[in-house]
Amino acid sequence: MRHYEDEGLIVPGRCGNGFRDYCQSTIDRVLVIRTLLESGLPVRLIRTLLPHLGDGSTTGTDPVCAEFLREVQGFRDRLAARIATLSAQQSALDAYLRGRTVPSADRT
After folding, report:
1. What is the model's pLDDT at position 102?
2. Arithmetic mean of pLDDT, 78-106
3. Are 65 and 16 part of one and the same domain?
4. Tell me: the pLDDT tens digits for 27-85?
5. How confident is the model at residue 91 (pLDDT cuts 50, 70, 90)?
6. Domain count, the chain
7. Which residues 6+ apart lie within 8 Å of 68 measured at CB?
8. To bridge 9 with a disulfide, which of 4, 17, 26, 36 should be the other Cys (CB 3.0-4.6 Å)?
9. CA–CA separation, 105 and 97 (whole Å)
10. Same-domain pairing of 51 and 64
11. Which strand (E) or helix (H) includes residue 103?
12. What is the domain range of residue 69?
């Protein structure tokens, strides 16, 4: 949670004793951040995206948002290309393994 705070992704409240106070909306935001990070989206793009999530605004009409959407699309396209490469490599390994007999661990 402190990492997300350091990155400017969340701003927790403070109790009278100075301890951080994470309200439910901050916890919900952290769950969204984790999902976006797990998808591979860079923190820089997540930081740009977060203010627009759930605010009901019409995104995609201003130049900053349009540029952001192009960046996300580019990231998605690069990810799809990596997936295609990995799938081809997996298929090649599968074909190789089908043509080979795997030694049993029980044989001595």
Report:
1. 63
2. 87
3. no
4. 898 998 998 888 888 898 888 888 776 655 544 556 567 777 888 888 889 889 999 99
5. very high
6. 2
7. 45, 48, 49
8. 4
9. 16
10. no
11. none
12. 58-101
User: Residues 17-45, buried b or exposed e (16+ Cβ, 10 A)?
Assistant: eeeeeeeeebeebbeebeebeeeebeeee
Asked if residue 62 and residue 86 are part of one domain, the reply reads yes
Token readout for 60 is 């995609």
Who contacts 43 (Cβ-Cβ below 8 Å, separation ≥6)? 7, 9, 37
Q: Which amino acid makes up residue 71?
A: E
Place of tokens 């984790």: 34
Residues 22 and 69 placed together within one structural domain of the fold? no
Helix, strand, or coil (residue 20): strand
Q: For the chain, where are the E strands, in sequence order?
A: 13-14, 20-21
- What is the identity of the amino acid at 30? V
